[in-house]
């Protein structure tokens, strides 16, 4: 028996500068209509002035191009997904290092990387750093990818009884990253080469850490309230809630919301263009503001054998 996989990706990308002087996030997504395949690439730059801005662009451009070149043969891509994702991350890391070594004033530049890849109802990813990948299912929010930061290691020490909670709270390096694309050896890579099985109704959010200004509990609460809305409406709702915080130190925010729908649910979504655009394109379209979103619908309907 060969049941069909009936999936529509409703995806919306959002980026906002927050209260920072520069936009050091970069994000791009590609969900070709009818291909049963899509991916997001996000990077959060660091290094000050133009260096962080350039680092995130280098990482996103390099990883996007590697995945796009492989997308013509999704079967081969999925069969070698771990190898391809890791090679793309290392290539991006090398490019950052090369640029830094040749550009005065950019020493120490780097960026996080988050690149989820969807194959019909299967999810893979690679991540380096602390940019979160969330899954919202059945009213609950969970983070899927690892956190490469001193804070995550401190949490482990506290949970294991090896460090006092008071000492952890006052630790001076808790916000430091333990792995990042900076041109040197990458200490930690989270590469999910065995798929997470997705379900109709799941909502994925790939984000920079600026979204975490809301806190996971608040993100979960908002998704419970808006889960029936389109991805674009969900994204705008999250952005409005961040704006309500009125935090003078609000970081750059970039994220992509992806809903997995049945084809019969497609009519319930807003009219959407079947396209892929970078956040830079969005900023050009919204000349009177610093925020914007784009929605992509991609239909999947193909047969697949069931083992056994």
- Count of beta strands: 12
Q: What is the CA-atom radius of gyration, in angstroms?
A: 19 Å
Side-by-side strand order of the widest sheet = 8-7-10-11-1-12
Describe the sheet with the most strands. 6 strands, antiparallel
- What percent of residues adopt helix (DSSP H or I)? 25-40%
Low-confidence runs of at least 5 consecutive residues? 270-308
- What's the helix count? 8
Mean pLDDT: 82
List SSEs in N-to-C order. EEEHHHEEEEEHHEEHHEHE
Through-space gap between termini: 10 Å
What does this structure look like?
It is a single chain. This protein has 308 residues and is an alpha+beta fold. The chain is built from 8 helices and 12 strands. It has helices at 49-70, 74-79, 81-102, 150-159, 165-169, 216-226, 231-245, 279-285; strands at 4-16, 25-30, 37-46, 110-111, 113-119, 122-128, 133-137, 140-143, 190-197, 203-207, 253-261, 292-303. The strands form 2 sheets. Strands 8-7-10-11-1-12 form a 6-stranded antiparallel beta sheet. Strands 2, 3, 4, 5, 6 and 9 form a 6-stranded antiparallel beta sheet that branches. Helix 1 runs antiparallel to helix 3 (81-102) and helix 6 crosses helix 7. The protein is globular and about 55 Å long. The protein starts with a strand and ends in a 5-residue tail after the last strand.
């Amino acid at each position: 028996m060969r049941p069909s996989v009936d999936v529509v990706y409703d995806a919306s990308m959002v980026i906002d500068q927050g209260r920072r002087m520069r936009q050091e996030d970069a994000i791009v997504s590609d969900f070709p209509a009818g291909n049963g395949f899509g991916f997001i690439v996000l990077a959060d730059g660091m290094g000050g002035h133009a260096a962080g801005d350039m680092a995130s662009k280098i990482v996103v451009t390099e990883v996007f191009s590697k995945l796009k070149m492989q997308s013509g043969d999704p079967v081969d891509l999925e069969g070698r997904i771990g190898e391809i994702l890791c090679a793309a991350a290392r290539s991006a890391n090398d490019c950052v290092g090369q640029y830094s070594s040749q550009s005065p004033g950019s020493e120490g530049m780097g960026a996080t990387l988050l690149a989820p890849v969807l194959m019909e109802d299967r999810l893979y990813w690679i991540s380096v750093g602390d940019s979160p990948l969330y899954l919202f299912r059945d009213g609950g929010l969970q983070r899927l990818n690892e956190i490469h930061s001193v804070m995550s290691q401190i949490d482990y020490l506290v949970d294991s009884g090896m460090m006092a909670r008071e000492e952890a709270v006052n630790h001076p390096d808790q916000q430091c990253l333990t792995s990042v694309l900076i041109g040197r050896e990458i200490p930690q890579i989270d590469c999910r080469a065995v798929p997470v099985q997705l379900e109709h109704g799941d909502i994925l959010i790939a984000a920079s850490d600026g979204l975490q200004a809301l806190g996971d509990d608040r993100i979960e609460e908002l998704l419970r309230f808006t889960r029936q809305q389109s991805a674009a409406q969900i994204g705008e709702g999250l952005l409005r809630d961040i704006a309500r915080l009125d935090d003078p130190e609000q970081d750059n925010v970039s994220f992509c919301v992806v809903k997995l729908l049945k084809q019969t649910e497609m009519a319930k979504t807003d009219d959407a263009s079947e396209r892929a655009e970078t956040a830079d394109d969005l900023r050009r379209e919204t000349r009177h503001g610093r925020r914007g979103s784009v929605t992509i619908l991609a239909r999947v309907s193909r047969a697949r054998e069931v083992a056994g």
